[in-house]
Queue: 2 jobs
Job 1
Amino acid sequence: MLLTRTFEEKLASMYRGGRITGGVYIGKGQEAVSVACGIFLQKGDIFAPLIRDQAGRSAFGEPLVDVARTYLGSRAGPMRGRDGNIHRGKPRDGQLAMISHLGAMVSVVVGSLMAKRGRGEKNFIGLTTIGEGGMQTGATHEGMNIAAVEHVPLVVVATNNHYAYSTPNNREFACANLVDRARGYGFEGYELDGTDLAQCLEVIGSAVKRARAGRPPQLVVASILRLAGHGEHDDFSYVTDDIRKEPFAIDCLKRAEAFIKERDLADAETLQRWREEAAEEVENAFSAAQSEPVPSGNEEDWSAISSRDLVDEIGEGGSS
Amino acid sequence: MSITYLEAIREAQAKLLRDDKRVFIYGQDVGGNFGGAFKATKGLAKEFPGRVLNTPISEDAMVGTAIGAALEGMRPIVEMQFADFSSIALNQILNNAGTHYWRTNIPVPITVRLPSGGTKGSGPFHSQSMESLYAHYPGLIVMTPATVEDAYTMLIDAVAIDDPVVYCEHKYLYYHLKADNLPNDGIPVGKARIARTGRDLTIVSYSAMLHESLSAAEDIAKEGFEIEVVDLRTVKPLDTATVLASVARTGRLLAVGESFPWGGVTAEVIARVSTEGFHLLDAAPARINAKDTPIPYHPNLWSTHRPSSKMIAAKARQLLRE
């Protein structure tokens, strides 16, 4: 959580300094939910994170330098400058590369899990994340339904951060509680307070265990407030003062620090050392990525398919 | 022995399931003892238990699931009940499967079968030809087999290809076309075929329109003109070299397609010949497509909306006079 917060603060400051091309999307306020999504996953599991899941991605094993590489467009990064910011993944390592169309990855995880089951693999699960905004798409509906039909070991963690970009919950959905949908899909549903790390670990950890044990797919709905804009270009002035006073608006990182202090789990010196270590790790990631070559339009391999003998001749030039 | 275009598609899938454990079929009504709306998977669920699976009416999730399985090493075949309904899966096909190799260096070997094109009485939502739309987007191979032999070998090729393939099978040809035997080998993917040789005019076509074009060519042969007919086979990649070579022989070009007229395969053929082979042309190139309206229900309207051998012959005569 701390590493993610430190990394994303640096990223936001670089964006403001004009050093990042394109958008910057951070998970401020969502780190506790996200880290709990990544931390229980094992080798052989499938993780399909979304845009506010740096904490989960890091917990699943994504090297921080790959994040820096993707934001800076390094050719050494997983996306080689072809896609940027949060659109990244390493499918061969079980981390799928999201597309921007929300809900599209739900059924992709289902297919990966079916293939694993078909091969006779055991003890694997898939976990994908979605927001309350993404829960309103047809793709999410189709994906969750087909997950239950195929009875795959899937956990869907839906974080209600109370805004789809600028649109508040009352213009997003009209049901009393999103977790009620679990029953409609044939999922088992649970809720949690996403500002409370201990609860995130407990509820998401249990859902992962249940999925691994062969229970029906699991839906966990977390409640938080997004403590940043949709992207760093957004000043989130639409967030009302009333909402900022809600219990779900508490900063999960501050709450976790208070918990540590309250229980005397680490002294101030240790906490300071963690901060310094995080800052150093972040600096290292960016300085490594910054020194790497960026792509060149003239040298790029402009082929959108792997079958080189089947590339349409118009492909390279874009003209004839 | 006589085998139809539809049976060839079924036989290709049976062979694929038999020969390759990675293959499974995913689609609406394909499983059980039903075997698909057109029976293209008849008997396969019984012969290959657990590998021919019915899905909910969820085109997006059908393709999404296939993508996920393909990333884990499988070779899924998705059957759309009608090509028209693949519009619901456009996002998965174009934005997920179509971008994946470019973005991640990992291709997505899925085959999406689209029962395409018009038949009498099928109306606006069960008649569409969507090859132009899929060909427009990067990252996909688009096949449009016009013969029983191609229907068989190209489907086998589609599954072997590491990239996503949109396989447009024509419903009008399902029962109309017959062959004596299924071939062991086909023409390589991406190569067009000269379906009829000639010297006076080149017609470039594919799928069901190939047969309308051949029929028009036979009519005009009685008038002393020999029309060459090129069957594109795949519309992407488009075999420009074969088209240009034919136009070099004939000096005249007519492109014929069943899809809507704005942009698309026929426009692409004409653009390529005009830009790369302008000097080969003795007359302005022409094209025929369906009309720019939704596809009508009543046979009187449908037969006018869709290009026919008569319309093609009329246009060809006009071109031959120029």
Job 2
Amino acid sequence: MNGDGGRSPTTLDPHRHLAAKHRWQPIEFAFWLAMLLPFVLVPTYLTLASQIAITAIFAVSLDLIMGYAGLVSLGHAAYFGLGAYTAGLIAKAGWGEPFSGLVVAAVAAGLFGYLTGFLVVRVRHLALIMITLGIGLLLYEVANRESWLTGGNDGLQGVVIWKLFGRFDFDLYGYTAYAYAFVVLFLVVVAARRLVHSPFGLSLRAIRENERRMPAIGADSRARLHTIYTIAATAAGAAGALLAQTTQFVSLGALSFERSAELVTILVIGGTGRLYGGVIGAIVYLVARDRLSGMNPQYWYFWIGLMLIGVVLFLPSGILGGAAVVARKFFATDERR
Amino acid sequence: MTAAALRTIDLHKSFGSLVVAQDVAISLPQGARHALIGPNGAGKTTLINLITGALQPDRGQVLLGDDDITSLAPEQRVKRGLARTFQINALFAGLEPLEAVTLAVCERLGVASTWWRHLTTFRGAIDEAFEILASLNLDAVCTRPTRELAYGQQRLLEIALALATRPKVLLLDEPAAGVPRQESSALFEAIANLPTDITVLFIEHDMELVFRFASRVIVMVGGRLLLDGTPAEIAAEPRVREVYLGRTRHG
């Protein structure tokens, strides 16, 4: 609410308006504090919590290209899996230091993202979906065949990760794992937040809204898309590396189409283009999976299918989209400044 | 003599056997206000597309000032100072006008790929964007999503986006198209207030606009230039009436 004549149009301050849009909302602080609760409230579920954090990073990376730039990808697991195997192989080769392993794995995934990006940014719609699908399938098959390197169907064994900072062991209870994953998630979201609220982020949204108009304002949209695709691949690789390091195992599933499709589902449930949608989606999906498969292991996919249909029909912008609508109704007194 | 602001030399474009532009040669002097008229299907928008690079000609050249821009990509031509608006709004529906124009300004300044700084730190760009919007009387609505603006306001936003690129040459494709009568005066005013150092070519069917703002009118029919002259000359020309109304050749 404005106290200083915000109603009169001539006193509209564009800077104030944009600053209000981009500043940290109280609910974000609350969210991050809540994410620390598992340590205290449900310490037996810390392994699940670290899985959620890892999937959240993965989902946020997809949101950057799908929610903000508008590129639908059915092969994002390629970068996740590549990051996982790279981190795993580095550790297996004898270098088990987690942070450096994470960085190298993320860079490797980012490099692959940069190279495949040349293909990806040239196409749209159906062709884009097919190309991303193809990239994922290709990498899966390579990993499958080169089982001397990847362990094939048995997965990558012998991944030994050293203690974090030389002190914290990756114990069975998952304290270290969740702390590690949480910090990486926080850093990734803060970086993504910066990006999304920057001129670059604005240009991505513009590309999504009307790509045709971009050259007419002097923008090379392909170059922008290539950049964000590379960044998203890097983040996905980091998530994969975290998985490899915290579970000390990598399986072909990390590269699979199922993984990519599942990720799209998670993001749609949470809400695309809202930065936190991937995190919310990961929480809802993985908690649901944990609860439902506990109750009925065979049919839990049925419930996920139902959830997806429900979300698409009743909450087309995902959970966060629905929450935004509710918030607008309740806080309707907040006049546009 | 200074070079013409925009010139085309014998532009030719055909799609198979359909010739959409034939030996089109126009020349716009600095600061000109020229109108391009012609019946539907005459190739006016095609010509704009050829000039802006959305379409590649089979033959011919496009010169912006002294530079041959025929081989440049559309976004590069914009950076050299050639801007256009679209006949059917090509706006960013989900963005606010303030965001859209700020983005256009950032693109011009070459900072739009900065991902590590908040948009709010680019105060100069935001101020400039707001100024452009205010000059078109869009400042009151610039923080609403574009899709919520009235159609006339959206047409003005089209112009605002083009102006944000600080063009030397501005191509307006039917700026008044679809604008209801009561909103068109704002549009006319905007066109009248365009900086005099910008060269403007506008396609229009609205003859009121043509007579009010154009110093010269070019008539295009079937992909070719028919003639050009002052508005008064064109109005008196029987051939022009013919091409719009068609020769009566029954039986």
